[in-house]
Every structure is written in structure tokens, then in C-alpha cells.
Amino acid sequence: MSFQTLGLGAELLRALSEAGYAEPTPIQAQAIPLVLEGRDLLAAAQTGTGKTAAFVLPILHRLASGHGHSPRALILVPTRELAAQVAESVDTYGRHLRLRSAVIFGGVGINPQIERLRRGVDLIVATPGRLLDHAKQRTVDLSGIETLVLDEADRMLDMGFIHDIRRLIGILPRQRQTLLFSATFSDPIRALAHNLLKQPATVEVTPRNTTAVQIAQRVHPVDKARKSALIAHLVHAGDWHQVLVFTRTKHGANRLADQLARAGIQTAAIHGNKSQNARTKALADFKSGQVRLLVATDIAARGIDIDRLPYVINHELPNVPEDYVHRIGRTGRAGSCGEAISLVSLDERPLLRDIQRLLRCDIPSSVIAGFEPGSAPLAGEQQTHPSPPRGRRPGQHPSPRSASDSVPGQRPRRSGNGRRPI
């Protein structure tokens, strides 16, 4: 199948050809015709499957048929980073269309956004909190919205945006097309879809809670105090570049980044306490290779897409097993190979059991020579003594996340032919 068979306009096909894309991914092949028909859609797709283009391309096609001063399409996303990446996709695929778009998120000045909206736009990409601020100030007119997209809806629910979303839904026209994209069809997502969608078509391209077969997973047992030293050893010994490391907390991310920098590894941290400029710079430096290792919290890393990202390391296992699937899904996308390494201390074994139960398989485990649990530190090795999360036992699920690690206000991966699926 080619994009030509999906019914997209000549301008979009030209942009796709110029970007080097010839064949749609499964989610695109299934979703694009349905969106072009005007159907509501409930789609389950992990990041890295090309889901962004699955809704951006048909929306641009439909918007190209007319123009107005008020926006006609609205794409809601959970984080600043995803908003910027979706907006970049809009610019890439719509480069030959006379369409205007705006990206709206918090953490930056609101006045330039107000001016952009005042000049008139056809499409808005936004995070719920900042868009609601505009609505309250009457600086955005949502009365002409024809298509609404909720991207990564499961994460928006996790991050506590449901109330903002409901307020925004109340402002939108009742007669509209609604597209809901989620990594999984959890019960809360199905409930949300029942309230928002009208006789939706359903597309599911990835089985629930599965990991890509091209991701090589492994576990390295190690003492908690020696985890940062083991990461430094693996990176130096394997000459690894572009390594994404997950920690549970923002403070833990900062601490680990400092330790790895002292070990001679160019490292940056990204989390909700970082300014938008700092987060943007860290991502850009990581993508360009100036930063070799990026330490991130779960929410800050949601939606991050790095071309051919080869390595993901779990410095600590997540408390929620499903987050393991999201974490390691940063690598091994769309036919590319990747490695996911988890450093597991004794107290994390219950968490590992929960993850393996979810995946319905055992993850291969091997001890790294010199880092055997209980062995003495190597000469000159820096040790750390991270404290466990307060008030939570290993294996106990956390209370619902607050949005504090994200800020209201995150694109797909190279395939085997070296091109990014869109």
C-alpha cells in the first residue's frame, strides 16, 4: 500500500515524498481513510507507530478545502514536548498548503500566543491547561472546531488533566468529529470514549501491554548504591551513545546526572522542574549527540522520539508495571533494534515480578563481572545511597500522579530503510 491509495491530496503527497515517506504504517493505513470519512475514532497505538501522521494528514486534507478566521481543528496533548513535536509534523506535512497553525503550551509567555491567535489560525496544537487559560481570557475562539483530537489520552488522564479536558469539551461545538488516541484501551479510556465519541470506529495496532519484538530486554542485578557506577561502566565499555535513562523522581534525575557527569559522560536531565528552555536545549543536545546520556522522569520523557535511539536504561524500575512498557518503547520502534537494560536491586525484585507477570514472560538476567550484588566497590568508584520512595513499599502502587512533574503543556521513529515513520 502507498499513501497515494489513501485518498490524500496532491500537496500532502508531495510533502510526504519530499520527506522520503512512501508507505504508510499500519495505524496510518487503517486510521486515515476513517478520519477522511468523518468518522469518530478510538485508536490504540504506542508512540513510534506513526500515530501522529495518522490524524495530522487527514485533518490537513480536510482543512485544505476551506479557510476561516476561527480554528477548525484542535489537537490536545499532555506535554509541552509533544505539543512542539506534533506542531513540527503539521508544518512538515502541510508545507505546501495555505494553512495557519498555532502551538499553545505553558511555561512560556502568553502574549505571543495571543497575537498568533488574533491573526487567525486553522489548527491549534495545545496542552489543556494553557488552552483553558486562553479560553478564560477570551483570547481563543473554539466555536468553529470541526475536529478534536485527544492524543495520548491515557497519559492525560494519569496526569490529572481530565477536569481541564471536560471544561474544554463544554466549550466546543457538540457537532464535531472526535479522535481519541491512547496507548491502551484501559477501562478509564473506554469510559472517556463512551462519553465523547459517537459510534466510533476502533483501530488497535498493538496488543495491550506488549513490547516490540525488536527490543532486546535484560536485567542486571546490582546493589542500589552501585547503580550509577554500573551505568558509567556499561556506557564506557560499550562506547554507547544516545542513552536514555529513567529515574523515578526529579531529584533522583538531577543527582544521577551529576554523578554520571563526574564519571566523564556528557549528561543532561529533563523533568518537570526544568524550565521550557532548559528542556528544549537538553533534548536538542541529546538528538545532536552533544549530550551522550539523557536522564528523565517518566512524564518528562513521554512522547520523546529520538532517531534510532539504541539504549534505554531503567536506573530504577517503575512502581507501575505498565510504565515499564512505555519506558522501553522509546527504543526499538518501527523495525529499528534497541536494547532495554534494567538495573535491579534486591528491594526491587517484587517490582520485577510484577512487570514479568504483565508481560507474561521472564526477562533474561545476568550479573556484570565486578558488580555482583554484595561485592566490594571498585577502586575509585563513586557510590550512591538513594533513599526509597517515601511511604511506599517495593511493589506497592503509588497514589495517583499529580501533574507537578509535567507542566501543562511531547513523534515517530526510523524504519528499517532508515526513514522515520510519520
TrEMBL record:
Domain Helicase ATP-binding: start-end pairs: 32-203
Listed GO biological process terms: response to temperature stimulus; ribosome assembly
Matching Pfam families: DEAD, Helicase_C
Cross-referenced SMART domains: DEXDc, HELICc
GO (cellular component) term, any one: cytosol
Keywords: ATP-binding, Cytoplasm, Helicase, Hydrolase, Nucleotide-binding
Region of interest (Disordered), ranges: 372-422
UniProt xrefs under SUPFAM superfamilies: P-loop containing nucleoside triphosphate hydrolases
Protein name (Swiss-Prot/TrEMBL): DEAD-box ATP-dependent RNA helicase RhpA
Domain DEAD-box RNA helicase Q: residue ranges: 1-29
Record motif Q motif, residues: 1-29
EC number(s) on file: 3.6.4.13
Domain Helicase C-terminal: 229-374
